[in-house]
Design brief:
The protein has 438 residues and is of the alpha+beta class. The chain has 3 domains: 94 residues, GIY-YIG endonuclease; 126 residues, no CATH class; 161 residues, UvrC, RNAse H endonuclease domain (Nucleotidyltransferase, domain 5), CATH 3.30.420. Helices cover 45% and strands 18% of the residues. It has 18 helices and 13 strands. The strands form 3 sheets. Strands 7, 8, 9, 10, 11, 12 and 13 form a 7-stranded mixed sheet that branches. A 3-stranded antiparallel sheet has the order 2-1-3. The radius of gyration is 26 Å and the shape is globular. The relative contact order is 0.09.
Length: 438
């Protein structure tokens, strides 16, 4: 497959989360990766600065690859889990050689009466002995328990994202990690005491005796099904348990199960999406891909609105435009309004852009960058400065290395012009509505 054929196939890939595979001429998997957007991530492998941004090992892999395949998922969280399972099964050379297996991350479920769910490094799994950690009647070291786990999931290449994933999972299925179970405390002649995680709802009450061994093992089974990639089996199991609880008139349990089902069907993994772009910055080419532009419109502070427009590879993506009615920023505070709509935009699971364009100079650029920094996202921001006739005069913040600058500038100006047009149209509509109401 030629480079152009690769690029054409990458363009056909869906703009959704998933896992992608590079294969050689024998259909053997060379490399497995996960993505927030399959299309954008695979397309990034054909950027002109690939050697600088990804390193010679990935360049060598691309040179061997003859085809691409992929599997899409419902969320980034599921893509993260699927990637780990596939790497474990196929052991692609360009994944396993890229990183020492002792530095991989694993999720371990311990073999105890009340199993713990722990994040463990590969080197810890390889060790057989460590300092003893009292665990009630068992008196075994934590390392001995980890060395003989009930379940191990991984390897996970992305340590920071795995930690974020575990936070999401723990909110859905609270579990024990470090606290001592109530039976062990009582056997040691101590009074059970709630751990910190119990107070914030992340431990189901193992330390206080609020949950039985049988009920807790149901939670562990659900977590196991999730990490095995059996989401549909998990959902059916939860629905069955919910209907059973409802028939028995255990309504509190039925409501809790309903919330877990909803959470799994609407996984809120914005934090994982942000982490993928955390160190993006200008280290890679931003000459292609998604560009978002933002503009604010009002008349003497009234009918204060903001908009987002999207341009991708020179084409306006009007179905992805968004309107925002300003709620908290004061009338006439354009920088404050921009901060508000960017914060609201980052609360949604929309694909993140390669670059953000704002209407204005330093004040607007700084306002946008502050919001992105708060969210831990390293997306570049440029400002379109206008003359007295509102015609574009210059683009501030454009990097020296940005691939095809001419095409990039055209895309930025198109996105900015669309944002201005869309904002004025929405503002006029709001103004007419406000006048009608009055």
């Amino acid at each position: 497959m030629t480079l152009e054929e690769f690029k054409k196939k990458a363009k056909k890939m869906p703009d959704v989360p998933g896992v992608y595979f590079f294969l050689d001429k024998h259909k053997k998997i060379l490399y497995i990766g996960k993505a927030t957007s399959l299309r954008d991530r695979v397309r990034s492998y054909f950027a002109p600065d690939l050697a600088e941004s990804r390193g010679p090992w990935i360049v060598a892999m691309i040179e061997k690859a003859t085809s691409i395949d992929w599997r899409q998922t419902d969320s980034v969280l599921e893509a993260l889990i699927l990637e780990a399972n596939l790497i474990k099964n196929y052991k692609p050379k360009h994944n396993t050689d890229l990183k020492d297996d002792k530095s991989w991350n694993y999720v371990v479920i311990t073999k105890e009466d009340f199993p713990r769910v722990l994040l463990v490094r590969g080197k810890e799994l390889a060790q057989q002995q460590s300092a003893s950690v009292p665990l009630g009647s068992s008196q075994r070291s934590l390392q001995q328990i980890v060395a003989e786990p009930a379940k191990t999931f991984g390897p996970f290449p992305h340590g920071l994202q795995l930690k974020e994933a575990m936070r999401i999972i723990r909110k859905i299925f609270p579990y024990r990690d470090t606290c001592v179970p109530a039976p062990e405390m009582i056997a040691a002649g101590k009074k059970p005491k709630a751990c910190f995680n119990r107070h914030i709802g992340l431990c189901p009450g193992v330390c206080t005796g609020e949950i039985s061994k049988t009920e807790y093992r149901k939670i562990i089974r659900r977590i196991t099904l999730l990490f095995e990639g059996k989401k549909q089996t998990l959902l059916k199991s939860l629905e069955r348990d919910m209907h059973f609880a409802a028939r028995k008139e255990i309504f509190e349990e039925a409501a809790s199960l309903r919330k877990q089902i909803f959470a799994l069907q609407h996984i809120q993994d914005v934090s994982l999406i942000k982490d993928e772009y955390r160190y993006y910055g200008f280290t890679k080419s931003v000459s292609s891909g998604r560009i978002e532009a933002y503009d604010i419109a009002h008349l003497a502070g009234s009918a204060n609105v903001g908009v987002m427009t999207v341009v991708e590879d020179g084409m306006a993506q009007k179905s992805e435009y968004r309107k925002f009615r300003i709620r908290s920023a004061k009338a006439g505070d354009d920088a404050g309004a921009l901060r508000e709509i960017l914060s609201r935009r980052l609360g949604h699971e929309w694909p993140l852009p390669r670059l953000i364009a704002v209407d204005g100079a330093a004040a607007q650029i700084n306002a946008a960058q502050r919001v992105l920094k708060e969210y831990g996202v390293g997306i570049p921001v440029v400002g379109v400065v206008k003359d007295e006739k509102h015609r574009p005069r210059e683009i501030r913040g454009l990097p020296a290395r940005a691939g095809d600058r001419t095409q990039l500038e055209r895309d930025i100006l198109l996105a900015n012009a669309e944002a201005h047009r869309f904002a004025i149209t929405y503002h006029r509509k709001r103004s007419r509505r406000d006048l009608t109401i009055k």
